[in-house]
Automatic annotation (TrEMBL):
This is Der GTPase-activating protein YihI. One of its GO terms (molecular function) is GTPase activator activity. Residues 1-78 are annotated as: Disordered. Residues 22-35 have a biased composition (Basic and acidic residues). It comes from Alkalimonas amylolytica. Pfam families: YihI. GO terms for biological process: ribosome biogenesis. Keywords: GTPase activation, Ribosome biogenesis. Belongs to the YihI family.
Amino acid sequence: MTRQKKTRNSGDNGPRFLPAAEVRKQRERKEESKKSGSGGKPGQRNSQLLRKASEPSGNSGNKDPRLGSKKPVPLLPEDVADAQPLLKPIQPKASVAKAVAAATLTPEQELAQLEQDSYLQQLLERVEREEVLTGKDAKYFNRMTERYEQLLQQLGLADDDEPLDPLAEFERTDWRAQLLSDDDEENG
């Protein structure tokens, strides 16, 4: 059996494809309708205004809305004060009441409150575990410990011989003198 070359023709029984020109002729044309635009014809606005102005109206004669107000405009500041009646100040509907100051605590009460503050206690535990406080926690801790120190000073309960800041004590000590004296004792 010999090989037959494939062709692009679909054969006698296949669908018939028409040329593009014939397809265009057979296609139904759309009904052409005039586009209805929105709005009126150009220039209608002014012609309508003029037509209305020219028609006699019963109330006040010729009223052309394009002309504007006939009220005289004051040109000097003195005229403005005379021309405008004084306006009453607008009263607010809501009444403003001053906040009542909270009852101030005595230093003893404030100290007791600080010692019972559970959040401050948690922060103290974290600091003792050598965690670094950041953000709001650090600000709160610093503010409360500073206030605690102030209250202790105010009440005379602070230990003057024991500083609250360990770094301050570290800076005050003279390490050279201690180291040198220890070496002298070992040699002698």
